[in-house]
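Thread: Newbie trying to understand structure tokens

Hi all, I'm a second-year student working on a class project, and my supervisor (Dr. K.) asked me to get a predicted structure for one chain before our next meeting. I've only ever worked with sequences, so writing a 3D structure as a token string is new to me. If someone could post the tokens and maybe explain what I'm looking at, I'd be very grateful. Here's the chain:
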Amino acid sequence: MEQIARDASQIGHALRRRRKALGLTQAEVGSKAQVRQETVSKLESGRPGAPLHTTFAVLRALGLELVIRGRSKAELDIEELF
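---
Reply by user tm_fold:
Sure, no problem. This is what the structure looks like when written as tokens:
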């Protein structure tokens, strides 16, 4: 299932949903990605500061990939309200 993520928080929610769908703990994902459980927790919570290579390691551990595409205008962005 495709998910659109436009910020770190949305990426974190997508990672958490996938991890839970696979029945994995944060520690198990961390082990597969060769990062600490705390790092997986930070990514899932959307906290800034994780290096891009760490994010890709967790994506890989969860069997996910990042797709870059033009931003759709179908949805109204909060920035456009002000």
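A couple of things are worth pointing out once you decode it. The chain has four helices and no strands. The domain at 8-81 is CATH 1.10.260.40 (434 Repressor (Amino-terminal Domain)). Feel free to ask follow-ups in this thread.
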